[in-house]
Fold this sequence. Notes:
By secondary structure, the chain is mostly helical. It has helices at about 1-105, 110-125, 125-135, 140-145, 150-160, 160-175.
Amino acid sequence: MTTMRILIPLGLLSALTTAGLGVMWLAPADAASTLRASLTGAAAADAACEMDGRGFRDVLESVRTKTQELARREDDVRAREASLAAMKTIVSNEVTRLERVATSLGVTGAPGAATSIARVYESMDAEDAAPILDRLDDSTLRIVLGRMRERQVAAILTAMRPERAVAITRALAMPGRVPEPSR
């Protein structure tokens, strides 16, 4: 009996150990099968990617195409900016040149002011306007008369002193230079 007492616990211990070892032995096998299954799932995913790889390649190609199109558009915008900068320089130079021409012709100042003054003198009788205009300097008189109708200018020149009318006629005939004031 004493032997039995010793053998029974040893048998139980052995059974538990074997069962424990079996569980421990089977656990890695289960893990391996799970790993194998996940690898099989990954292989399936790879296969799906290969089948769906065309879609990914299409997206990638589309992105490349859009990138090239944007680069082309950016180059076009840069070219237009350079063209506009060149045009701005040309226009600025032309404005400067025209301002110099206007200054040499004596046509400077606010455009509306001379026109409205010309209208005032145009509405007056030539005999009344001539003595007033006779006192103006030649460049101012040329601007005012240049904005009036020819018929009214002719009437005013007729009413002016002959020497002054000659000087103003010369000033109007040669717009590039301002004649010296007559005495």
